[in-house]
């Protein structure tokens, strides 16, 4: 649901609203590039796109917080690693959620199939993401 304040738009997802780790929400956002009805994880953004997106995000974040100084490459790299680690957590979370929904939900949706997709992507990404190291 969009809210408009003084010329800006804020999007709020009331369905699953709650405080979360910054990197989890961004990782989950990147996972959602794959879509829902016809899931295609080849749409997960590549490293170059993520670095550009994250730099812009951090610049806006710092400006909003009134923090001086430019965003460093190290800051971008740190959040890049965190985001991709949390993207794994997002896959695992939504895979488990889907299994629960398969048992409880009356919605006509292939929750088991969706859980399989999420768990498969988790295991596909796991070794690559585990190899990422935070900069010193």
Any overview of this molecule?
By secondary structure, this protein is mainly α. 60% of the residues lie in helices and 6% in strands. Strands 1-2 form a two-stranded antiparallel sheet. A hairpin with a 2-residue loop joins strand 1 (2-5) and strand 2 (8-11). The longest helix has 32 residues, at 73-104.
CATH superfamily grouping: Aminoglycoside phosphotransferase (APH), C-terminal lobe
CATH topology: Aminoglycoside 3'-phosphotransferase, Chain: A, domain 2
Please state the structural category: mainly alpha
For the termini, the CA-CA separation is 40 Å
Query: Treating each run of at least 4 consecutive H or I residues as one helix, how many helices?
Result: 4
Biggest sheet statistics:
2 strands, antiparallel
Average pLDDT confidence is: 90
Q: CATH class, anyone?
A: Alpha Beta
| Strand order, sheet with most strands | 1-2
Which CATH architecture? Answer: Alpha-Beta Complex
What percent of the residues sit in helical stretches (DSSP H or I)? 55-70%
Q: Order of SSEs, N→C?
A: EEHHHH
Tell me the fraction of residues in β-strands, as a range: 5-15%
| Radius of gyration based on Cα positions | 17 Å
Overall 3D shape? globular
Any idea how many domains?
1
Please tally the β strands and state the result: 2
Protein name: ethanolamine kinase
Keywords: Kinase, Lipid biosynthesis, Lipid metabolism, Phospholipid biosynthesis, Phospholipid metabolism, Transferase
GO molecular function, one term: ethanolamine kinase activity
Pfam families: Choline_kinase
């Amino acid at each position: 649901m969009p809210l408009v304040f003084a010329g800006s738009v804020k999007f709020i997802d009331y369905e699953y609203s709650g405080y979360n780790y910054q990197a989890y929400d961004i990782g989950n956002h990147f996972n959602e590039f794959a879509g829902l009805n016809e899931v295609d994880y080849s749409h997960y953004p590549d490293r170059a796109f993520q670095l550009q997106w994250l730099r812009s995000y951090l610049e806006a974040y710092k400006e909003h917080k009134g923090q001086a100084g430019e965003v460093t490459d190290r800051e971008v790299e740190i959040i890049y690693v965190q985001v991709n680690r949390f993207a794994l957590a997002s896959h695992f979370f939504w895979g488990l959620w889907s299994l629960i929904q398969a048992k409880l939900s009356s919605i006509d949706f292939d929750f088991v199939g969706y859980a399989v997709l999420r768990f498969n992507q988790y295991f596909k990404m796991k070794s690559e993401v585990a190899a990422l190291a935070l900069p010193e």
